[in-house]
Structure formats: structure tokens, C-alpha cells
Write a structure and sequence with these properties.
This protein has about 425 residues and is α/β, with parallel strands linked by helices. The chain has 3 domains: about 190 residues, FAD/NAD(P)-binding domain (3-Layer(bba) Sandwich), CATH 3.50.50.60; about 130 residues, FAD/NAD(P)-binding domain (3-Layer(bba) Sandwich), CATH 3.50.50.60; about 90 residues, Immunoglobulin-like (Sandwich), CATH 2.60.40. It contains 7 helices and 26 strands. The protein starts with a strand and ends with a strand. It binds flavin-adenine dinucleotide. The site of flavin-adenine dinucleotide (FAD) has 37 residues, from helix 1, strand 4, strand 7, helix 3 and helix 4.
Length: about 425
């Protein structure tokens, strides 16, 4: 790398990083975008189904098509793109940030003023859901099955079951069926599915793929290759119920049991993470608790829609380019009744400009409900919903300008059910 000094480094070239790099460049910053894979686009490269871009572009796009619209802009811009380059370490001394990278030219470092972490998320694996039995080939995460099918053009299974009803599992149930595999069913330990309603309808019901809630896989069988699985019903605490075991013959078990933000780099910097969502705690301008270091996209919290990922990337990139050192005045935002989580977790009272974009999820399925945002008990925002479900993330815009808030204020989001 010939030039080793930049204003902003963006780590990760998925939709969040692409939007962040473009937004920072538009503010006049000298930007470097670092990606470990051999092309930009992140996970969207393998998501060949449609349904992306409904909010941003008002049309249904395939994942690679959505990514391409940003990649083309990056190619026309002055953003320096480094592919096949892995960020191994970040150090911060005072206001100096040093990014250590490794690529085919060896190990080198880049000095930057600010940094955007857009490293995405990773899938939970079989190890994280503790299934008994042997360890044969044929146990895949849904993302790996998607990579085999859509990128390598190899069908990883002829007959499978899917454990977990996350969106990637639902999409793969349909994809594998379209490619001629038999999907015996999607099994979900919780009493309600984890994926978006539209995916349950379009990926399972339209293809007659059964969905079994309150069921899990308790054992796998097979030596070299998986030959079958044991399914059991579970109780309200998700514990298998003895006597309900059923054996199913199949060659693969596909796991869709959740995504976790990828934050080893943030952890290396001792940046505090939100214990519920495993992403860095950040303010309304996407700055983490470490000055000059920003987060966005799925590295911050797992988003349902890529449109919101791009929105957060844009805001983080713009803020990273505009960042000028100065003391922050931080007030904490709290999750009240029936809120599973919300972001941003903190507000920087010195830098509230325009309306604050906030995201939240309900902690259970709810009927007609009202969301209230309060500051020291005074209502500053409310909104009614016909129904809310934890898999569906909600976006609101709250105007905190002119509201009396100090560092000790109790800012809270809460939900309660109401009559329609
Ligand atoms: C397997 C899978 C399938 C998905 N399918 C769908 C779907 O069908 N529909 C949908 O709406 N959403 C889907 N999602 C959610 C999807 O991740 C988001 O919508 C969106 O792509 C997230 O964007 P991102 O930029 O935050 O992360 P990503 O797209 O994951 O991009 C992160 C990028 O960071 C790079 N990176 C990470 N660490 C480093 C490092 N240390 N150095 C350099 N580069 C690094 C990665 O290589 C990657 O390119 C899926 C997620 C996964 C994991």
C-alpha cells in the first residue's frame, strides 16, 4: 500500500461499509475501505433471492443487484479499496488510530483519524446449540448451505431438515426445494417462528414445507455422513420432553439458529459491548464509547432489512468524516417495559442534530400496542402499532431538540398493549 495515511478507514465492504465509505468521501474525507474477501458486497453476494431495497429503492432487488448499485458508486469515487486484506488489529493511543492489516504483500499498518467498524455478523453454529451424537459431515449453517448452492453451484443436500426458523433458514428451505432437494420441515424450539412473516409465508407456506414450533433436534446419527436426526418436542422452558422422540432419515441438518455481531476488533480495543445484542454501545451518531471509532450495520446489531443497514452505514460514515474531537455529554437510554433492546443505547447531548433515528424490538408477540419515549417521566414521543413481534425490528424518529435532558436523565422506551 503506497499511501498509509487516511482520514477515515472503513473495515468491511458489505452494504454497511459501502454506504459508510461513500458518505465519508462525500464529506471530503480521504477514505480507505478494507475488505478481507476478493470482492465487495459482503453477505449480499450469496443472497440471490429478491426482496432487498424495498424501502430505499422502492423495488424488489436481488442481494448482488442491491450491492452493485453501491459498488458502482464506490468505483467512480476516490475511495481507496483494498481487497483480500484482513484487519488483524487496531490500536489507539490518544487520538492516533493504527490499523494493522495482512495481505499478499505481508503485514503493514495504516494511520487514520477515525474508523468505522462494519464487519457484519456471523452465524451461530452447532457447537453453540449443543446437539448430542456423532460429528458426521452434513451439518451446515444455513449461510454455508447458501454459499454452496448460490456461489459454488453445488447442492449440499438431497434430503434435510432445518433447525431454527431464522430468515436465512426459511430462505434456504425454499431455495433447496427449488433446486430439487426435499426439505422435511423447519423445526423451531420456541413457540413462535423467528423469521419475518413475509418469509414464513413466501418460503414455507407457498412451498408446502411444514413448520414445527416447540420442537428441537436432540441427536444426530451417522459416521462419515449424517444419516438421520432425532427430533423431540420441548416444554415452555425449551427442554426436550421425554417420550416424544421421533427419528427422521436425512443426509443433512441445516442450522438457522441466530446471528451474532462480529466484534473481535472492537473487543481488542476494550470498547464496551451491549450484553444483549453483542454490538458496541453507540450514540445517535453511531460513535462507540471510544472517541473516533464508529459502528454500523450488523456489527452493531442484527438488522432484518438491508435498507436500514445502509442507512446506518451512511450516518456512521458521515459522522466519522465530520468528527472533531471534543467532550461528549452522554445520557443513557434505557429499555423499559416489553422492550427487548433498543439502539442507540446512549445520546450525545452535545451533538443532537435533527431527529434521532432509533430502532427497537418488542420482547414478546404483542397485539395493538403503544410505544412511549419518555425523558424523566415526560412523554416526548408516542406511536401506536397494530401488532409487534420480536423478529420484526421497528424504526422511529424522535425529536429530542429542545427537550431538557442532562447526563443523569432517565430516557426510556416502553411498550404497553392498548385497545384498538
Ligand atoms: C449467511 C447470511 C445470509 C443472510 N441473508 C440475508 C437475506 O437473505 N436477506 C436479508 O435482508 N439479510 C440477510 N442477511 C443479513 C445481512 O447480513 C444484512 O442484511 C447485511 O448484509 C449486513 O450488512 P453488513 O455490511 O453489516 O455485513 P456483511 O454483509 O456481513 O459485511 C461485512 C463485511 O466485513 C468483512 N470483514 C469482517 N471482518 C473483517 C476484517 N477483520 N477485515 C476485513 N474485512 C472484514 C466481511 O468479509 C464482509 O464482507 C444474511 C446474513 C448472513 C450472515
Amino acid at each position: 500500500m503506497e499511501n498509509k495515511k487516511f482520514d477515515v478507514a472503513v473495515i468491511g465492504g458489505g452494504p454497511a461499509g459501502l454506504a459508510a465509505a461513500l458518505a465519508a468521501e462525500k464529506q471530503g474525507a480521504k477514505v480507505i475501505l478494507i475488505e478481507r474477501e476478493n470482492s465487495l458486497g459482503g453477505i449480499l453476494k450469496q443472497c440471490i433471492h429478491d426482496g432487498f431495497g424495498l424501502i430505499r429503492f422502492k423495488k424488489k432487488m436481488a442481494g448482488p443487484e442491491y450491492a452493485l448499485s453501491f459498488i458502482e458508486e464506490v468505483e467512480k469515487s476516490s475511495v481507496k479499496v483494498e481487497l483480500l486484506t484482513f484487519v488483524t488489529k487496531i490500536t489507539k493511543t490518544g487520538s492516533e488510530i493504527k490499523v494493522t492489516v495482512v495481505n499478499n504483500q505481508g503485514i503493514s499498518s495504516i494511520e487514520v483519524k477515525t474508523l468505522v467498524l462494519s464487519t457484519g455478523c456471523r452465524e451461530r453454529t452447532a457447537r453453540q446449540v449443543a446437539i448430542h451424537g456423532t460429528r458426521p459431515a452434513g451439518v451446515f449453517t444455513a449461510g454455508t448451505a447458501q454459499y454452496y448452492t448460490n456461489i459454488l453451484g453445488q447442492l449440499p443436500t438431497k434430503k434435510c431438515i432445518i433447525l431454527g426458523s431464522g430468515d436465512i433458514g426459511l430462505i434456504m428451505a425454499r431455495r433447496l426445494t427449488l433446486e430439487g432437494a426435499k426439505v422435511l420441515g423447519v423445526y423451531e424450539a420456541k413457540s413462535s417462528p423467528s423469521g419475518l412473516r413475509r418469509n414464513i409465508s413466501q418460503c414455507l407456506y407457498d412451498f408446502n414445507i411444514p413448520l414445527y414450533t416447540s420442537h428441537t433436534v436432540t441427536r444426530v446419527f451417522g459416521q462419515d455422513r449424517l444419516t438421520g436426526v432425532e427430533i423431540s418436542k420441548v416444554d415452555g422452558k425449551m427442554q426436550p420432553i421425554k417420550g416424544t422422540e421421533e427419528l427422521l432419515e436425512c443426509d443433512s441438518l441445516i442450522l438457522s439458529v441466530g446471528l451474532i455481531p462480529e466484534n473481535e476488533l472492537a473487543e481488542g480495543l476494550n470498547i464496551p459491548l451491549d450484553s444483549k445484542i453483542k454490538g458496541p454501545i453507540a450514540d445517535q451518531n453511531y460513535m462507540t464509547m471510544e472517541q473516533g471509532i464508529f459502528t454500523c450495520g450488523n456489527a452493531m446489531h442484527v438488522n432484518d432489512l438491508v435498507d436500514y443497514v445502509s442507512e446506518s452505514g451512511e450516518a456512521a460514515g458521515k459522522a466519522a468524516a465530520e468528527y472533531s474531537k471534543g467532550r461528549r455529554k452522554i445520557a443513557k437510554v434505557n429499555c423499559g417495559e416489553n422492550i427487548l433492546y433498543e439502539v442507540p443505547q446512549i445520546l450525545d447531548l452535545e451533538n443532537i442534530k435533527g431527529e434521532t433515528v432509533m430502532f427497537f424490538r418488542a420482547d414478546r408477540d404483542m397485539g395493538p400496542s403503544e410505544l412511549r419515549v419518555t425523558v424523566d417521566g415526560n412523554e416526548v414521543f408516542k406511536k401506536k402499532y397494530r401488532a409487534l413481534r420480536p423478529p420484526e425490528m421497528e424504526r422511529i424518529q424522535v425529536d429530542f431538540q429542545g427537550v431538557e435532558i442532562n447526563e443523569k436523565s432517565n430516557i426510556q422506551l416502553s411498550l404497553r398493549e392498548v385497545k384498538e
